[in-house]
UniProtKB/TrEMBL annotation:
Name of the protein: GAK system CofD-like protein
Pfam families, A to Z: CofD (PF01933)
First and last residue of the signal peptide: none
NCBIfam families named in the record: CofD_rel_GAK (TIGR04357)
InterPro entries for this protein: CofD, CofD-like_dom_sf, CofD-rel_GAK
Molecular function GO labels: LPPG:FO 2-phospho-L-lactate transferase activity
Stored Gene3D superfamilies: CofD-like domains (3.40.50.10680)
Amino acid sequence: MPKVYRQLTVPDMVRVHRYQSLPELGPTLLFFSGGSALNKISRCLKRYTHHSVHMVTPFDSGGSSAKLRDAFDMPAVGDLRSRIMALADETVLGQPDVYELFSYRMGTRANSKQLFLELAALVDGSHPLMIPIVAPMKALIQTQLKRLQERLPEDFDLRGASVGNLIIAGGYLSYQELLDPIVFLFSRLVKTLGQVTTIIDDVYHLGVTLSDGRRIIGQHLMTGKEAAKLDSPITKIWLNNGLTECVPVQPLLPDDRRQQITSSDLICYPPGSFFTSIVANLLVTGVADAIAKNRNPKVYLPNLGEDPEQLGWPIMKRIEYLLRLLLDDEPDQNCHRPVLNWLLLDDAYDYGFLDEEKLKEWGVSVVRTRLITTRIERYDEQRVSEALLSFV
């Protein structure tokens, strides 16, 4: 089949303005991500396309998600809810009252009785945030919260609980312990301008082996946020059944996720925790094959600053790891079966040593453009969005 080539310009403002004028017909940009690192970029991107796809890891074992996981043995929903809210329609055409409710967190200083009374007010509709919401949306939300209330352990700690997380958890319990139905409903209620899904709808955790031989199970022990930063580099990562014993699992990628990966206009490995947000998605059996079957651009936008998970993992090592992971340990096959085409970099930031001859051997091209516009080490979401849109 003949190929069609075009000159790549980054940013390509003609394309950017075209997408901005009609985001309803914008391209499908697919992101393998988790956590909040991509939320600002996502919030900007929805001005250009309403068809971005965000595959989020459900393996988080920390924060408020951990409380719900412990109570109901369910996947983590915090990152899922966070990305849905980032893509929600925040204009007058959206649902501002629903958006405000889903973004609300319960107090951290109130006692247990006060918090359970507040939950009861949400369930019966008398809470100030529930009053403005009209039927039938109000009834749908109440149904999910009531289901959660009925199953919530008496000693459950509601301090700092995200109401959005509680609604998703209630829906999970209502829909035969499946996430997809409640994620669909939740997304419709806030009019998400894009699609957010978990890579799989299963209750698994992350495990890693460190270079000193230690094994760690639980994402919350790897990120340096809820436990001490790792003092030995990660050498292996896997999906694990449970938090107590090493029980590796290899779940299969569902057919609908496979279709989304193979049909997207661009695949991006975005900023975020390298192992627990990006690589975690790629561990699911079938993901690598789906990526390779997509002939459209695949772009890696590396992290800025310090990522505790990247201890001992300079940029060239991370690129080689991605290629080996996705190509059965044969990075040279990327020239023939590409899973990564482009390395997108800021033109002034020091990412560390780049062996561009080796990248060329692997079939990876480097694109440098202005992506950082402040003195703070943070990507400018507008410039990143414009750069990614220029590839499609």
